[in-house]
Structure prediction request, 291 residues.
Amino acid sequence: MAEFTPATLKHPPQGEIRVDNVSHSYGVGKFAKEVVKDCGFTIEAGKLTVMIGPSGCGKSTLIRLIAGFEKPSKGSISIDGKPITGPGKDRLVVFQETALFPWMSAYNNTLYGPRARGEDTPEIHREAQSLVERVGLTAFRNKYPTQLSGGMQRRVELARAMINNPKVMILDEPFRGLDAMTKALMQEYYSALHEEFHQTAFFVTTDIDEAIFMADRLIIVSNIPTRVCAVVEVDVPRPRRLVDIYENDRANQIKMSALSMLHEEAMKSFVGGSKAASDFVDAYSKRTGKT
Ligand code: ADP
Ligand code: MG
Prediction:
């Protein structure tokens, strides 16, 4: 096997992101809708920070703000101490929806970023080859996205992001929609990549098991408008394997407290503000003794 030279590791890790008292609204005047409220947290350099919160709470909005696609209505976001004022090649977003070009092979998709910048050099081809190998797709390098399984497409997506050597990888529910077994394998796969490269990462999910398995630091956010409910250091040793994490007392303890927080927040978004909704909450409280 050819030796893999990490494209993404620049020691010491860089890309510490500070989100400072950020609020964000869509629309203006009486149509304004606040989606993010007084949010503050740090994405530590070299760590895998996972954000978990109910669907529709504002997580992708926070990603767009960190990526610089939108400006926060209030507060500030910085990377390594410098304010973020727009998109930059130091941050790269991997979205849930596949963004692979269907007319390009796995290999050409991987090379897309450097080629778009005019860097079609022998070095970058070597890099692309070792990345394609690192994501286990050497035998599939000439296949087109439709000829690849969902898991393989996700791995091309990772290679295509990593070749650009961003300081920070931002992943917005990257494994959503994969079948359970492929998803589990992708979680182990990305976790192992992180253990190898220690690349700063911000990973957003709605899946508690995925969140705890992946995270160095877990940020639990509320129902819309999103605010930080809790920040937990997931002090579970690495390397991690999915089969071990279910038996880890610390991981289970974090899971239980995160679940109860998330359940409360998810219920708020589930029932909304109607009379039927408040009746549902009352009935639930009576039945369970919880408010
Ligand atoms: P999540 O990623 O947590 O599911 P989003 O950030 O996608 O949540 O969305 C949060 C809320 O903001 C949703 O109610 C959504 O409808 C609304 N929203 C998202 N993008 C826009 C936009 N461009 N204009 C108006 N509302 C938006
Ligand atoms: Mg989203």
Summary: The longest strand covers residues 33-43. The pocket of magnesium ion (ligand 2) is lined by residues 59-60, 172-173 (CB under 6 Å). The chain is about 40% helix and 20% strand.
